[in-house]
Design brief:
Blueprint lengths: L6 H13 L13 H11 L11 E7 H17 L15 H17 L7 H8 L10 E8 L3 H21 L3 E5 L6 H7 L6 E10 L17 H4 L5
Antiparallel strand pairs: 1-2, 2-4, 3-4
Helix pairs in contact: 2-6
Bound molecules: flavin mononucleotide.
Flavin mononucleotide binds next to strand 3.
Amino acid sequence: MSSQATEADFDMLVRLIRTRHSCRAFQERAVSEATIRKILETAQRSASDCNIQPWKVTIVSGAPLDSLRTAMYRCAASGAPGLSDIPPIEQYFGAYQERRRDCGWSLYGSLGIERGDRVASGRQALENFRFFGAQHIALITSHASLGMRGVFDSGGYIALFMLAAHALGVATVAQGSIAHRADVIREHIAIPTDHSIICGIAFGWSDDGHPANSFRMKRASITDVASFVG
Ligand SMILES: Cc1cc2nc3c(=O)[nH]c(=O)nc-3n(C[C@H](O)[C@H](O)[C@H](O)COP(=O)(O)O)c2cc1C
């Protein structure tokens, strides 16, 4: 395979990046193991610090996923405090807070939930713990001793996983929220105790007609994030 990329390669990449979006309503139809393996093979090409490849991925489907879904939803709905391996963000501020709110309002607005309707928005937020009806979840973990480095290399892996899935027509949504229930995940799935649960990626076939999939998030301008020196 030539390593020399062409303009057509770039155009294809941009098209895939621009058309990928988070999916929050899935069909009840499984993805074949062959397709899942293709996604894993592609994501495995992620770059990492000294090529340590710190990510581990556990694909949960079928009956174990149903049990996990039931337990996660029950626990989150009960309001019991969560437990995270990775410390949660205590407070968002400024632009980060604004973008976060915009994300929530875009989702809730698409479902006809009024701003300030905490009951309805809370109910929708709980759908995270049903994995939005996805037939598979990839649990992403990294050895705890690798700390932040393991986490940010895993971020690159997550991005490639989602892009590879999209290129195969498979919809995804990364789910940091479920990592706040690390204790419940561990009760159901054998995650080594020396690994930190970073997040999940729910994936499957998109329910395209569902309003939760009808909105697209914008991005900040590059002038907000990039600077040139010299
Ligand atoms: C690490 C990570 C964790 C995320 N956690 C959640 C989550 O718990 N629930 C959710 O609905 N979306 C979650 N998202 C999806 C983001 O909200 C989404 O990527 C962002 O709003 C941009 O929208 P887009 O993916 O449709 O372009 C997460 C995304 C990332 C990268």
